[in-house]
Amino acid sequence: MTTAWLSAFFLVGGAAICLIASVGVLRLPDFFLRMHAATEAGVAGCGLVLIGVGFAYPSVDMWIKIAIAVVFLLLTTPIAGHLLARAGYVAGVPLWGGTVDDQLKGELRRGDFDLPAAMSATENAARPKGRRERRAVEKIVLALAEGPDANAAIHRAIEFADSHRAELLVLAIVDTRSLENVGPVPIGGNFYAARLRGALVEKARHALADAVQRFEQAANAAGLAFSIRMEEGDPASVIAAHQGPGSLVILGRGGWFDQGFGEKRIEPLPHLARHGVRPVVGVGGEGQTLRRITFIHDGSEQSDRTWEWLVTLDPWPEAALRLAADDRAGEGDLDRARAAARKSGKRFEEDASLSADGRIVESQIVIFGNEGHGGWLGRKKAASHAHLDQVPIIVFG
């Protein structure tokens, strides 16, 4: 009887670890954390399951086989995980935006993970070292949602597509997941809850159709070609599927894809950034001329990637660029940003701190280099954005 209980304990414990690890592989935010979860499943989860089998069928032969299997698990899976993680780090696989400290910085040389696959090592070595070719803005992706800033987003998207001679794609999205969440349903209320869900989705479709019609009128007046995709589901997944290296994702800051009919208010920029859609350009305020950009660097690798995106894509070439460091950025972090700007040939100036002369609010474009962290730190940083309501364009990287 005791062996039966021990068998059940180890089998259920090992299976639970494997289940939790599988969720981690699907949901953890970067390659290294997912690799850690997979290793835990392979060693701890499988090892406990094997021990449970040993208690279920106790014999000397069985325990010898299980001991050999566990030894091989300990000798192979952690080492394989370590080697894969090291290879990913050296290749330049991005770290999670919420990473506080990279203890391997300066110890291992990191490559450029975003280097085009078609470029061979010989071609890469042959590229000019002093100056990197800039990418062109190839596609403007307007994620259209009804709201107070919808018209501003429409006009900015048309303006950018015209100035860059870029493809203009409109994603007209209804967030059905948000609309179908109507709160707790009492006993016997499923019928009426289903009717309410259907009514909310239908209202959102009609509101979105009005926004699409306004866009079509504005784009036709500007003489621009465009394409429209009607989508329903998770907005972050839909937008991410159409975001590429040469694309600019634009949306209004004041509305969400429930088209104003959802029960919960969702801030579009933080939500999309946390779900991997970044950089994302939020439009609001008045239609001012874009003369000045302020980039806020927090010292993270995500800020480095956003900065490199900015200086290589250069979506606003006529605007003067200023680099400002927040409290977490050290001098070495800004050295990396300076080097990236020199490679691209992009000129910029520096501010010693975020509050220098209060000039951030005077900028027409404010870019936060790392806004994908959704924990308490992200909420604390979000509180400092309230005074930027009148800034025409805010970018979350």
Describe this structure in words.
This protein is of the alpha/beta class and 397 residues long. It has two domains: 2-91, no CATH class; 139-396, Rossmann fold (3-Layer(aba) Sandwich), CATH 3.40.50. Helices cover 49% and strands 13% of the residues. The protein is built from 13 helices and ten strands. Strands 3-2-1-4-5-10-9-6-7-8 form a ten-stranded mixed beta sheet. Strand 7 (320-325), helix 11 and strand 8 form a beta-alpha-beta unit. Helix 2 runs antiparallel to helix 3 (60-91) and helix 5 packs across helix 7 (190-222). The longest helix has 33 residues, at 190-222. The chain is flat, with a radius of gyration of 26 Å.
Q: Distance between termini? A: 58 Å
The average pLDDT is 82
Number of helices: 13
Helical content class: 40-55%
Q: Ranges with pLDDT <50 over ≥5 residues?
A: 114-133, 375-381
The largest beta-sheet arranges its strands as 3-2-1-4-5-10-9-6-7-8
How many structural domains are formed by the residues? Answer: 2
Summarize the structure.
This protein is α/β, with parallel strands linked by helices.
List the helices and strands and how they pair.
Layout: H1 2-27, H2 31-56, H3 60-91, H4 121-126, E1 139-144, H5 150-164, E2 167-174, H6 176-179, H7 190-222, E3 227-232, H8 235-240, E4 247-252, H9 268-274, E5 280-283, E6 292-297, H10 301-313, E7 320-325, H11 331-344, E8 349-351, H12 359-362, E9 365-368, H13 376-382, E10 393-396
Parallel strand pairs: 1-2, 1-4, 2-3, 4-5, 6-7, 6-9, 7-8, 9-10
Antiparallel strand pairs: 5-10
